[in-house]
UniProtKB/TrEMBL annotation:
Keywords: Cell membrane, Membrane, Transmembrane, Transmembrane helix. Belongs to the major facilitator superfamily. Monocarboxylate porter (TC 2.A.1.13) family. The chain crosses the membrane at residues 12-31, 81-100, 106-127, 139-163, 169-189, 252-275, 287-308, 320-339, 345-367, 379-402, 408-432. The gene is Slc16a12. Residues 12-434 form the Major facilitator superfamily (MFS) profile domain. The keyword Transmembrane applies. One of its GO terms (molecular function) is transmembrane transporter activity. It holds the Pfam family MFS_1. This is Monocarboxylate transporter 12. Its main location: membrane. Functions as a transporter for creatine and as well for its precursor guanidinoacetate. Transport of creatine and GAA is independent of resting membrane potential and extracellular Na(+), Cl(-), or pH. Contributes to the process of creatine biosynthesis and distribution. It comes from Cepphus grylle (Black guillemot). It is found in: Basolateral cell membrane. It comes from the Eukaryota. Gene3D superfamilies: MFS general substrate transporter like domains.
């Protein structure tokens, strides 16, 4: 494969965006539409809402929990193979669910198997967009991620019609056939080789810290059997470390913690907005319309915020745009308990939906800015993995608060404060990094240290005056923390 000096920002990249758009329809939109089956499952199996609701939680949790597995297969085998395999597993899960005889059957087939299939498709497809785009990365992600909102808007009435015409079993069977389109999406994901990609195993052989005898053995293995060399213990350890070395980056650690709080805050609102609207006297039709508004505006937020943050004036501040969007959604949740009629809830749906689409678009962009394009697939797998537990836990916790307090106020306040804390954590970390860099500049100017910026963005210091040993270690640590930017 030819090696490209950088992302092409177009060409076949737009086919990658189209493929990722279809992947988000077949994964996230289908997952949202599973809630339409709740009443049917409840009536057929004679179970309460709590037990039936676990189906949706397990699908979401399995999709995010197994995201690192999707990244692993994409990195070591092929993104195309991973997505095609995921499409087959997800389709098999939906088809087997159409023959379910109990809720436990649905937990395994619709929850675990389908969720696993979605996991193998979701994060590798999103990472591929980052491989093909740099200058227009946010816009490309905005278009690709809008598939979730557009798919929900189109699929929801279609699924309801299928249930009325063919029962829930027939509807699941047809959805299983529809999800097979993931295999077509996988075929579109043509791999690309970039110069900034990490060192490969042969380059590992040239490292000074590898003993000469070990080099000879590895080179001999590479001549006799490429397969043995590829799976040798030393190369596997090195490659595994190279894939996940970003886990020790302070910037990624802060992002990971903030994602946990953000995921906890955003999940319950999609579950409890309609029940809350009904509890304050809004009609069923109007409550459903609120969700439709939220979904449509979510699409607008995906695309317009992606386009805006690609502009020259905002491109350097995409991190702050992300935390601003998360913080605005948190504020919306705080004000929700005092909005107790339909005319007030409509602006809420507009605002929350727009900023929800905005930060969903910027999650992979911000992750790429923190870890670099070469580690994006593995990093996105970890980021989406961190969504799993909050997605599983937050709706039941919110429901418990509603049962305990008799109102939705405590649940919405907890969601709002959780998202605001996520935003503030990133903000303080960003400010601390700027203060640290300012201190380093003043330190280097005072001591006569020369600063060199290499082509990969890393900062190297050559000390021309005597420095305290602690200062030297501090400068070295800063160099490492910025080497992947």
């Amino acid at each position: 494969r030819a090696q490209h000096p950088g992302p092409p920002d177009g060409g076949w990249g737009w086919m990658i965006v189209a493929g990722c758009f279809l992947v988000t329809i077949c994964t996230r939109a289908v997952t949202r539409c599973i809630s339409i089956f709740f009443v049917e499952f409840q009536a057929y199996f004679g179970q309460d809402y709590a037990r039936t609701a676990w189906i949706h939680s397990i699908v979401d949790c399995a999709t995010m929990l197994c995201a690192p597995l999707g990244s692993l297969i994409s990195n070591h085998v092929s993104c195309q193979v991973g997505i095609m395999l995921g499409g087959l597993l997800a389709s098999a899960g939906l088809i087997l669910s159409s023959f379910a005889t109990s809720l436990e059957h649905l937990y395994l087939s619709l929850g675990v198997l389908t969720g696993l299939g979605f996991a193998l498709c979701y994060s590798p497809a999103i990472a591929m967009v980052g491989k093909y785009f740099n200058k227009r990365k946010a816009l490309a992600y905005g278009i690709a991620m809008s598939g979730s909102g557009i798919g929900t808007f189109i699929l929801a009435p279609v699924v309801q019609l299928l249930i009325e015409q063919f029962s829930w079993r027939g509807a699941l069977l047809i959805l299983g056939g529809f999800v097979l389109n993931l295999c077509v999406c996988g075929a579109l994901m043509r791999p690309i080789a970039l110069k900034e990609d990490r060192k490969t195993a042969p380059e590992f052989l040239e490292q000074d810290y590898v003993p000469k005898a070990q080099k000879r053995d590895l080179k001999r293995m590479s001549i006799c059997s490429p397969l043995i060399k590829a799976w040798s213990h030393e190369c596997l350890c090195y490659c595994s470390w190279q894939e996940y070395d970003f886990l020790l980056m302070p910037g990624f650690m802060v992002l990971a913690v903030s994602v946990l709080f953000m995921a906890y805050g955003c999940s319950p609102l999609f579950v409890y907005l309609v029940p809350y609207a009904l509890s304050v006297g809004v009609s069923h039709h109007q409550a459903a319309f609120l969700m439709s508004i939220l979904g449509v505006i979510d699409i607008i937020g995906n695309i317009t915020f992606g386009w805006l943050t690609d502009r020259r004036c905002l491109k350097k501040h995409r991190h702050f745009c992300y935390l601003f969007a998360v913080g605005m959604d948190g504020l919306c949740c705080l004000f929700l308990p005092i909005l107790q009629n339909f005319p007030l809830l409509v602006p809420f749906s507009f605002t929350f939906g727009y900023f929800d689409g905005a930060y969903v678009t910027l999650i992979p962009v911000v992750t790429a800015d923190v870890v670099g394009t070469s580690s994006l697939s593995s990093a996105l797998g970890v980021v989406y993995f961190l969504h799993a537990i909050p997605y599983l836990v937050s709706p039941p916790v919110a429901g418990w608060l509603v049962d305990t307090t008799g109102s939705y106020t405590a649940s919405f306040l907890l969601c709002g404060f959780s998202m605001i804390f996520s935003s503030m954590l990133l903000c303080f970390a960003r400010l601390a990094k700027k203060i640290k860099r300012t201190h380093l500049r003043s330190l280097t100017s005072d001591t006569g240290t020369k600063q060199h910026v290499w082509t990969n963005g890393a900062i190297a210091y050559s000390v021309t005056a005597e420095l305290d040993q602690k200062d030297v270690e501090f400068l070295a640590a800063d160099t490492n923390s910025y080497s992947n930017r």
